Amino acid sequence: MNLKMNQTEWNTFHRRYIKRRMFHLGSKKIFSMLRFKWLAKLYTYIELFFLRRLVFPAAEYIVTTRCNLRCRDCFNYIPYISPENQYTVTLNDFKKDISNFLCGVNGINMLGIIGGEPLLNKELPSIVEYACGKKQIKHVVIVTNGTIMVSPELLTVLKKYRHKSSVAISNYSANKELEKILKGKEIQKFLLEHDVHCHLDENLIWVKAKKFQDMKLSDSELRAVFNSCSNFCYSIFHSQLHVCPRSSAFAAMKLYEPKPSDYVDLTTPCTQQNFIDFLKNDLWTACNFCPINTEKEKVQPAIQCPVAPYLLKEEDSQQLGC
Questions:
Q1: Which helix (H) or strand (E) is 152 found in, with range?
Q2: Average pLDDT over residues 166-193
Q3: In the chain, where are the structural domains located?
Q4: Crossing angle of helices 124-132 and 152-160, rounded to 10°
Q5: Is residue 210 very low, low, confident or very high in pLDDT (cuts 50, 70, 90)?
């Protein structure tokens, strides 16, 4: 593991790894008392520089881009992926990706299973069981839109691994248009009755999604966009670890051809250096397409587009508000 970096690289690595690792450790009981919090920082440095251990903060795995909703303001622009570019991972490919990922790290604090709508992947129970069975993965959370009931097969897995798995349900009940299909509270009650950790987010805040486009930015402008962003939800999609879910979505839409420096390749076993280089990088092609949301106009969560967004022309988008 080569940890030699210039000041710019170190600043990026510190923001993306050191601070997040310290935050995670600080939440543990042994460090949580005020007088012991400074130990989290000390332990982080000892772990990295002396023990040579790298614990990846968190990653979201997109098990399918298919979704049964068409949310206008989807933060990850999933509804804008056309049918020919949709992707659903198989269990075998998921196993290869996770196995190769874990070759390069000593652990993953949290693995999010997301979509699209992850419950549309028929192999989800086996996918979750494989992830939960890995000792290096500390916690697995499924993020669902609350429109599909948990299957008996998935429930069995969640009960088996209740100590390290949970379900997060997005609460879209403020949107009366979705009232007939939402099952969030029903799912929550069902899971809690079976002693499965479950959270229904009652305070969702969405902002209006801006139109993405090729902004033709220079390298210095790309760096400025990235450094102004706080979205560190690293995203695994199609055997690639991307810097964020939008990077994954833009790649799925084929807006750009990712360069080797734009992702970590999970088709072969990774090394610690792959992740060090990833975490110190501050230049990403995907930032060229990502609208900077300086004016965050709050909107009702899950407003539905009457037409699939990928079909809309610009004039239609403006007329429909999609």
A1: helix 152-160
A2: 94
A3: 1-53, 55-290
A4: 10
A5: confident
3-state secondary structure at position 304: strand
Separation of alpha carbons 154 and 19, rounded Å? 34
The stretches of 230-313 forming alpha helices (DSSP H) are 245-252, 272-280
Q: Rounded CA gap, 71 and 305, in Å?
A: 6
Q: State the residue for tokens 């069975």.
A: 133
Distance, first Cα to last Cα, the chain:
46
- C-alpha dihedral, 165 to 146 to 20 to 196, nearest 10°: -20
Structure tokens belonging to residue 135 = 């000792």
Distance CA 39, CA 30 (A): 9
Q: Which amino acid is at 262?
A: D
H or E segment and range at residue 43: helix 37-45
The model carries a pTM of: 0.92
Amino acid (one-letter) located at 263 = Y
Decide which of 2.40.50, 3.55.50, 1.10.12, 3.20.20 is the CATH code for 55-290.
3.20.20
* Amino acid in the structure at residue 313: K
d(CA 124, CA 148): 13
> What Å distances lie between residue 263 and 69, 82, 126, 133, 259, CA to CA?
28, 22, 26, 26, 8
